[in-house]
Write a structure and sequence with these properties.
The chain is of the alpha+beta class. The protein folds into 2 domains: 67 residues, OB fold (Dihydrolipoamide Acetyltransferase, E2P) (Beta Barrel), CATH 2.40.50.580; 141 residues, Trna Endonuclease, Chain: A, domain 1. The chain contains 3 helices and 15 strands. Strands 7-8-9-12-14-15 form a 6-stranded mixed beta sheet. Helix 2 packs parallel to helix 3. The protein is globular, with a radius of gyration of 18 Å.
Length: 233
């Protein structure tokens, strides 16, 4: 996926989860942060970022923060990017041999899953989660508690009993990482539910992405590690 109207900038501060103070050509500006996660290790004072200028005259903020540079690593922090990139990638992804239907935003139970797919004679629900939290090559999700994400995992597991296949695809919004694992420190219940869903038959997948300041493209498989819960649940 490709962005237009991108501008280099410098991150200054994040007064709240929706807003960033930035600097463009020496002028302070206010930008929208398209990610409600903490992103504390990415959005540090002085970090190089790239923002997209928004043409909506009714917007209070003129720019959206899209990409950031953390040391030598480029990271896309646009929370809407994973679904858009997966939609482009799925038909040629090789995950399924014969896809006859890809339908975004499909409801099952109390959840609306990102994709409903019919392929290889199967009916599949897919939930997509973007992951940006990285430490020494290890990527974890979530970087903030996610009750919505927990509900999705439990509903995916429930869909198996109704004859559906189910998978979770973690889109690693960067390149060159070692492996992915759930963040049990931040949200133990999510990590436990993901482990249980895997045991029940939900496929847990991860792919990294090729990132430039103005693009993001799904790339290669990333190993997934699912540590067993320390206590029964």
């Amino acid at each position: 996926m490709q962005y237009d109207n991108m501008i280099p900038a410098v991150f200054l501060a994040r007064p709240n989860r929706f807003i960033a103070n930035i600097e463009i050509d020496g002028l302070r500006q206010v930008s929208h942060v398209k990610n409600t996660g903490r992103c504390r290790e990415i959005l540090t004072p002085g970090a190089r970022i790239w923002v997209r200028e928004n043409s909506d005259p009714h917007r209070k903020t003129r720019f959206d923060v899209i990409t950031a540079q953390k040391n030598e690593r480029m990271i896309n922090i646009d929370a809407s990017a994973p679904n858009a990139a997966v939609k482009e990638w799925l038909p040629e992804s090789g995950l399924f041999r014969q896809i006859s239907l890809i339908r975004p935003e499909t409801t099952f139970g109390r959840s609306r899953f990102d994709f409903y797919i019919e392929a290889d004679g199967r009916k599949i629900f897919m939930e997509v989660k973007g992951a940006t939290l990285e430490d020494r090559g290890v990527v974890r999700f979530p970087d903030a508690p996610t009750e919505r994400g927990l509900k999705h995992i439990k509903e995916l597991e429930a869909s198996l009993a109704s004859g559906f296949d189910a998978c979770v695809l973690f889109v690693i919004q960067m390149k060159n990482v070692e492996y992915f694992e759930p963040n049990s420190t931040t949200h133990e219940a999510f990590a436990n539910a993901l482990y249980q869903a895997h045991r029940a038959g939900v496929r847990i997948l991860a792919r990294d992405c090729r990132i430039t300041p103005d693009s993001m493209e799904i790339a290669d498989p990333v190993p997934v590690r699912l540590p067993a819960p320390s206590e029964p649940f």
